[in-house]
């Protein structure tokens, strides 16, 4: 009996020696896998939020809120208008959970066991683990006292503890109790049971795991490190839609990096397919689940029609090398860059338009005033804005502003300059 899945081409036909696809077709595959190829066709439902996180395999968390915090914005680009409270509800009811993955992330309840098993086995050099280890080395008694309090009295927030030196931030400047809570979270002894105004509420892991839906699978903890690494490699390629070997490890922060030799057994079993992309030096890999998408891409039947504003922490752009090769888009998250060295602004949202990243805008939501401020908007060099592009860009900005509860749009400078007057005219109508 063949080891290949039903409907998957034999390796000789789908390997890198077969018909190459274009970069445009590769982008369409990537966006289809990420849920960004076309705009949603109906109003979002609660289960769509879970399906979207499962499709991406994770949803990165970031607390900056000059516009909507990143996880909400990532979901908005894929779901359209949806109540942001659904994310907190999903966490509170155990449909999703928090863990360290790419960075701090939400994952579905069905995947949390894999991440806990991986972190229990793999040696980590992540900054959170390094800080947690130092904290345990110096404050283990206090940490155990805190754990005992939670066991006896229930969940806590960092804000439940007073501090004398207000106004500081960062792990090394957190109040001691916050560092202790985060250290227990990094080790897996504590988990986040819910969020209140986006603040973590910590509880014993056993109590959080007990409420998961679907129920926590204890068998996940028995997987070997090799089996878990294979699973995360396959999940990364599925989530990305198409990937070069050197892109794969970053998705779940796997170490060591993934190379072509490690992928050969997955090609042999048919779990991965290999394809050539015109102009790429290295072969690309596609999950067997996306074999039908690959055929549609080859036939030119994957049409990108969506226009959306992306979070700086969207999976599409968080790997700078991948965004550069796949979209010819050089992107840096400049909120972590000193202001004098910023090229585009503090919180810059990439603009996705019909399969391309055509520009970026620096935005801020003034919620009390109901104003969505576009401080600056930059189209990429060589982009010539058509009437349709401007119309769809104006609509995407307006939809995002409305969803923020800031329907009045204030537009600053644009590059090229005539874009500003064109957008303002569209919003007047």
Automatic annotation (TrEMBL):
Family annotation (InterPro entries): AlkZ-like
Superkingdom, taxonomy of origin: Bacteria
UniProt-listed Pfam families: AlkZ-like
UniProt protein name: Winged helix-turn-helix domain-containing protein
Source organism (scientific name): Dyella psychrodurans
């Amino acid at each position: 009996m063949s080891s290949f899945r039903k409907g998957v081409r034999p390796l000789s036909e789908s390997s890198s020696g077969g018909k190459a696809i274009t970069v445009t077709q590769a982008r369409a595959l990537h966006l289809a896998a990420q849920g960004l190829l076309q705009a949603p066709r109906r109003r979002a439902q609660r289960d769509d939020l879970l399906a979207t996180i499962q499709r991406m395999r994770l949803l990165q968390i970031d607390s900056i809120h000059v516009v909507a915090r990143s996880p909400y914005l990532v979901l908005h680009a894929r779901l359209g208008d949806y109540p942001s409270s659904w994310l907190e509800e999903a966490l509170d009811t155990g449909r999703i959970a928090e863990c360290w993955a790419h960075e701090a992330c939400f994952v579905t309840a069905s995947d949390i066991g894999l991440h806990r098993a991986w972190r229990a086995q793999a040696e980590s050099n992540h900054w959170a683990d390094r800080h947690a280890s130092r904290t345990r080395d110096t404050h283990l008694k206090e940490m155990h006292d805190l754990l005992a309090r939670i066991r006896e009295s229930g969940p806590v927030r960092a804000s439940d503890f007073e501090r004398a030196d207000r106004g500081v931030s960062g792990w090394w400047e957190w109040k001691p109790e916050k560092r202790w809570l985060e250290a227990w979270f990094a080790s897996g002894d504590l988990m986040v049971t819910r969020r209140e105004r986006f603040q973590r509420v910590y509880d014993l892991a056993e109590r959080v795991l007990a409420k998961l839906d679907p129920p926590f699978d204890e068998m996940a903890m028995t997987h070997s490190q090799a089996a878990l690494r294979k699973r995360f490699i396959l999940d990364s390629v599925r989530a990305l839609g198409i990937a070069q070997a050197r892109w794969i490890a970053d998705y779940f922060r796997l170490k060591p990096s993934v190379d072509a030799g490690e992928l050969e057994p997955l090609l042999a079993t048919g779990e991965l397919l290999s394809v050539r992309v015109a102009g790429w030096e290295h072969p690309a890999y596609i999950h067997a689940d996306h074999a039908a998408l690959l055929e549609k891409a080859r036939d030119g039947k994957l049409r990108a029609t969506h226009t959306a504003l992306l979070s700086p922490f969207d999976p599409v752009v968080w790997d700078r090398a991948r965004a550069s090769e796949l979209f010819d888009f050089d992107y840096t998250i400049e909120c972590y860059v000193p202001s004098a060295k910023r090229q585009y602004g503090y919180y810059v949202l990439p603009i996705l338009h019909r399969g391309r990243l055509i520009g970026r805008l620096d935005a801020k939501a003034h919620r009390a005033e109901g104003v969505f401020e576009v401080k600056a908007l930059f189209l990429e060099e060589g982009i010539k804005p058509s009437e349709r592009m401007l119309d769809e860009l104006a609509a995407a900005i307006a939809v995002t502003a409305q969803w923020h509860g800031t329907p009045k749009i204030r537009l600053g400078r644009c590059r090229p300059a005539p874009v500003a007057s064109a957008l303002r005219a569209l919003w007047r109508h």
